[in-house]
Design brief:
The chain is an all-alpha fold. The protein is built from eight helices and no strands.
């Protein structure tokens, strides 16, 4: 992924999602370091989505109003913030490792590996298969996740698929 592709990736998000997603990414980085070993790895992986939903809900309640009418939309945008935070973390890890920034398919595969890490180590090929399958056949991708990741629930598969929609 070159700088132009990174800009195109960022352009798909609204400014509020980028700002809140950035806050979520930073908070998750520090909370992950602080809580690692004290809480379940599964919780740390899902933390960006939970925190994104909570922060966007609070943002919506404060600045948009109509919480009862827009609650579903606030939570949906909050999950997009969590997805952005996860992708931002993967991109930052690539930059800090002095490597090349990933292209879109590799970024999607790395996000799959990151989210499903508590359920087992996926190979690059398995993560790429899941990411590619998610673009055309969500049901098949969910079945693939459940088959490859021992102990993964349907909720985990659904979260991965929702995250991949935004990447």
């Amino acid at each position: 992924m070159d700088l132009l592709q990174l800009f195109y990736y960022l352009r798909q998000y609204n400014a509020d999602i980028i700002v809140i997603g950035g806050i979520v990414a930073a908070a998750c980085y520090f909370l992950g370091r602080l809580l690692r070993g004290k809480i379940s790895e599964k919780f740390i992986v899902f933390l960006p989505f939970l925190l994104g939903a909570a922060l966007y809900f609070a943002y919506g309640a404060l600045f948009v109003g109509g919480v009862a009418e827009h609650a579903g939309e606030f939570i949906k945008h909050g999950l997009s913030c969590g997805s952005f935070a996860t992708a931002a973390r993967v991109i930052c890890e690539q930059l800090l490792a002095k490597g090349e920034i990933l292209d879109r398919s590799a970024l999607r595969a790395e996000c799959v590996k990151e989210i499903l890490q508590p359920y087992g180590e996926l190979t690059d090929e398995e993560a790429e298969r899941i990411a590619a399958c998610a673009e055309t056949d969500e049901k098949g991708a969910a079945e693939l996740i459940l088959a490859l990741c021992e102990g993964a629930t349907e909720a985990a598969a659904e979260l991965v698929l929702d995250a991949l929609k935004d990447i």
